[in-house]
Amino acid sequence: MGFRAWWASASANLRGSVYMLSALLVYAVMVGAIKHVGGVIPLVQILLIRQVVMSLIIFAFAGGGLRLMMRTRRPGLQIVRSLLTLAAMLCGFTAVIQIPLAQATAIGFSQVLFVTIAAVIILKEVFDARRWAATVIGFVGVLVMLKPSGEGLDAFALLAVVGAVLNAGITVSVRMLASTERTDTILIWQGMVMIAALALPTWLWWVPPDAAQWFWLVVLSLFGTAGQWLITRAYQVGEAAALAPLDFSRLILASFTGFVFFAEIPALSTWIGAGIVVGATLYTIRKNARPFPREPASV
Fold first, then answer.
1. What is the CA radius of gyration of the chain?
2. Distance between CA atoms of 296 and 280, rounded to whole angstroms?
3. What value does the mean pLDDT take over residues 212-240?
4. Which pLDDT score is estimated for 114?
5. Closest Cα partner for 46 from 207, 179, 167, 234?
6. Tens of pLDDT, residues 90-145
7. Which end of the chain is more exposed for a tag (fewer CB within 10 A), N or C?
8. How far is the C-alpha of 187 from the C-alpha of 192, rounded, in Å?
9. Buried b or exposed e, range 88-108, using 16+ CB within 10 angstroms
10. Cα-flanking dihedrals φ and ψ of residue 52, to 5°?
């Protein structure tokens, strides 16, 4: 049986899983490249270049022209979501650059826990006591990874938590946009808002990249775009409840990338806290009977 015949006969969840795992591999390259150049090139410059490349690719492949893509019923919410995405990237990628990849990745899993709280407050969803208990336990895992001591908390690890909070806000905002907005509309608004917001700080802090740095900037931009398409396609094809647990393989990829390329060895507290957060998050995902909206990834 050839690949095309196998692919055509595969179940929707299997095909979605292939898209999801491919997206995670692509994102691992992107994050590693950001960590590599982030010590020299300002993060705002990296994000601007990434967003320009992504917007050009989206515009080239999306049908209907720019005017159709920009058409929206909720411009205010589009701008809020885009600014949340920018803030989440600034916090999350700063953490990636400054702390071990495995720790930053594991803390990022707490996003689902923050979505639970936001869904209650903003979307007025009702959760039972067991789901709330899982949320509290998950936050205990986050505290373990933050390693509170007499000297306080790790500021960059706290930035990873803030990034998770902001990503939860992005998820909720996409739930609110899902009924009226197209995916390419959400992405092109994100691109326009982020480019406008990043233009001045990038100009002020511009560092001329050398040839090797330009190579990695282009790579992370292309891989970021490919990852966004793959993960969006995964949720279009498969069931979110079946695909979401695969996201935890990011921790293995992050640990491997950090060890091989950056000589990072995750602390025991990272593994213990990650185990607690993953367990609580898996329980929360299982209790969420409804599929998540088909939202493109934001980092």
1. 19
2. 24
3. 86
4. 84
5. 207
6. 999 999 999 999 999 988 888 878 877 877 787 777 767 777 888 888 888 888 88
7. N
8. 9
9. bbbbbbbbbbbbbbbbbbbbb
10. -60, -50
75 found inside a domain: yes
Give how far the C-alpha of residue 29 lies from the chain's centroid of Cα atoms, to the nearest Å. Answer: 14
149 φ, ψ to 5°?
Answer: -150, -175
Can you give the residue range of the structural domain that contains 70? Answer: 16-287
In a domain, 292, yes or no: no
| Residue 43, in any domain of the structure | yes
Cβ atoms within 10 A of the Cβ of 258, count? 24
Other C-beta atoms lying within 10 Å of the C-beta of residue 130: 11
Dihedral of the alpha carbons of 61, 62, 67, 73, in degrees to the nearest 10: -150
Q: Looking at the domain assignment, is residue 11 inside a domain?
A: no
Task: Give the chain's length.
Answer: 299
Angle at CA 5, nearest 5°, toward 242 and 57? 65
pLDDT band at residue 240 using 50, 70 and 90 as cut-offs: low
Q: For position 184, what pLDDT does the model report?
A: 80
Determine which helix (DSSP H) or strand (DSSP E) holds 75, and give its type and residue range: helix 75-98
Q: What is the pTM of this model?
A: 0.84
Residue 289 pLDDT greater than 50, yes or no: no
| SS3 state at 152 | strand
| Alpha carbons 223 and 107: distance in angstroms, whole number | 23
DSSP 3: H
Instruction: For residue 149, list its beta bridge partners.
Output: 152
